[in-house]
Design brief:
Blueprint (H helix, E strand, L loop, with lengths): L1 H31 L33 E9 L9 E10 L5 E12 L2 E17 L2 E17 L16 E17 L3 E7 L5 E2 L13 E2 L2 E8 L1 E4 L2 E12 L5 E10 L3 E8 L3 E9 L4 E10 L10 E10 L13
Antiparallel strand pairs: 1-2, 1-17, 2-3, 3-4, 4-5, 5-6, 6-7, 7-10, 8-9, 10-12, 11-12, 12-13, 13-14, 14-15, 15-16, 16-17
Length: 327
Amino acid sequence: MKANKETTTQMARKTSRWHRALPALFLALPALMPGRALAQQDPQFTQYMFNLLALNPAYAGSADRVSLKALSRHQWVGFEGAPTTQTLTVHSPLLLQSLGLGGTIMRDQHGPVTQYGLIMDVAYRMFLGNDQKLAFGIKGGLNLFQGDFAALHPLEANDPVFQQSVSTKTDPQFGFGVMWYSDRFYLGASSPKVLRTDFFDTDSLRLVSEPGQRAHYFLTGGYVFHLGTYTKFKPTFMVKAVEGAPMSFDLSTNFLLYEKLWLGAMYRHTDAVGALVQYNITNSFSAGYAYDYPLSPLRNYNGGSHEIMIGLDLGTTPKGIRSPRYF
């Protein structure tokens, strides 16, 4: 009986320590699980239609001057270890105008897992007439992975299960994209990360086997309808696919009033609904905010997601190019 008592106590302790670490582990698993995991691994953005460089390198140079976008997303506010993502993108056409050059810095954290992306973008643009362009782009850079699993604070101090950490693991990354666009519409297909990222060299974490990140594929598009002198209507869509996960899509509708104020709503399939607002303070400076309300059972445990974006365009707008841009 004494042996059974000790065994029961040990089991209770193990159960308790897993429950204490469960919130962070729940958020970390999508990044650690192999392609069979039913989850999108790349960060998601509600204001993607104003920040397309993060998804498609062919977008580089499309603003026809130096364009900077800073975005911060705080997902599932109030949920311990919830994802937070920050991105800074910059792009500009080169002197020949046929080339576009850009770069992206990204930080994505969920639970004990933190990833950094340092990416360069290059696009070649073909001018088709009627202000239409066909662009081909490539991405290249580094993905840095950190896993601080020792910070999960288990019930038992020095528990070896939670002493496993990955200080820094660096992997090369590569992506590609194509985009057809004018100042009224865009249609693009891309895969920002083609190379698989293996987070661990061995199965030292004992939670999963062959953990890594799979390639994601995006199809995006949008069109601007003129409803009157002071009103524009811009519906957009984004379809996301990754091996082992069900296909997902975002649908958004945005109205532009007096060339200054964007008001919009979005639906993310089985995941969230939301609203966004963006204001063009000047022809060169804009600020936006988006809020997502979750549709999944997680809505009972968090206060939704918040996203803030700031845009700044530098230099003189080339003659014949409208300002501000619609996307």
